């Protein structure tokens, strides 16, 4: 009877057999392998990421007539056979897979990359010739705001100088474009520069979100990859700042997987 129903499926218009996204399967199985790491923090993060990726596979596949996930799309199926990777290598694998993913899956996978990048540390990247002008404008605004905040930074001066240096380097690496004069930069929605720590955290958190958004909105694979790397680098800076305040950087909204 099952064979007859299977054959009938191909005769009826609009009927298709659910197939799991191979890129998501690969990422999920890698995350599951990494969840066996001796590093408990990394293992926990990768276990959560593996489940998020398997959930994404199921979401894309849809459900059967009785509301169940098709058998072909139920993961994990067995213990992973791939070798575990360090955070930096796992992050690179996510970047490599991103272009082949369904557009609706990219926000969740971008958050996974950002989590891994936060654990792996900063990465250098060469920008493509075509850039998102809004991001160049944003980075110039950040440099302006951080420069002003130095006058009020006190004991936080080393943190401000480090963040300012990284944003200046980023601006210098991007192709020059038309940006507003410093007086036109509006940072009024952020904590006052006098509240140095709060200002720094807010700016770096927004840097992550803006670079993520730029990556996800781009139709250019090169820029998407570059922008996501910069989101990860901003996340590294954010993590250092909030960790110094005794807070858990993994609780940041831009890292949510749902």
Automatic annotation (TrEMBL):
Residue runs in coiled coils: none
Taxonomic superkingdom: Bacteria
UniProt cross-references to SUPFAM superfamilies, sorted A to Z: Ferritin-like
Secretion signal span: 1-18
Protein keywords: Signal
Keyword Phosphoprotein assigned: no
The name this protein goes by in its record: DUF4439 domain-containing protein
Organism, scientific name: Corynebacterium kalinowskii
């Amino acid at each position: 009877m099952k064979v007859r129903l299977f054959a009938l499926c191909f005769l009826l218009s609009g009927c298709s057999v659910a197939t799991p996204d191979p890129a998501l399967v690969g990422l999920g199985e890698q995350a599951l392998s990494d969840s066996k790491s001796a590093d408990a923090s990394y293992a926990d993060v990768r276990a959560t990421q593996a489940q998020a990726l398997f959930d994404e596979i199921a979401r894309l596949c849809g459900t059967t007539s009785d509301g169940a996930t098709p058998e072909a799309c139920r993961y994990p199926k067995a213990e992973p056979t791939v070798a575990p990777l360090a955070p930096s290598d796992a992050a690179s694998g996510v970047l490599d897979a991103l272009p082949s993913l369904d557009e609706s899956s990219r926000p969740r996978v971008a958050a996974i990359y950002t989590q891994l990048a936060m654990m792996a540390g900063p990465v250098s990247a060469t920008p493509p010739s075509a850039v998102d002008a809004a991001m160049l404008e944003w980075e110039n605004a950040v440099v302006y705001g951080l420069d002003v905040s130095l006058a009020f930074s006190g004991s936080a001066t080393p943190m401000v100088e480090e963040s300012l240096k990284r944003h200046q380097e980023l601006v210098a690496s991007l192709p020059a474009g038309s940006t507003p004069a410093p007086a036109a930069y509006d940072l009024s929605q952020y904590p006052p520069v006098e509240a140095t720590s709060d200002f720094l955290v807010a700016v770096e958190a927004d840097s992550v979100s803006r670079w993520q958004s730029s990556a996800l909105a781009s139709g250019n694979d090169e820029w998407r990859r570059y922008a996501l790397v910069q989101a990860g680098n901003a996340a590294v800076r954010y993590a250092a700042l909030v960790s110094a305040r005794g807070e858990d950087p993994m609780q940041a909204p831009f890292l949510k997987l749902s």
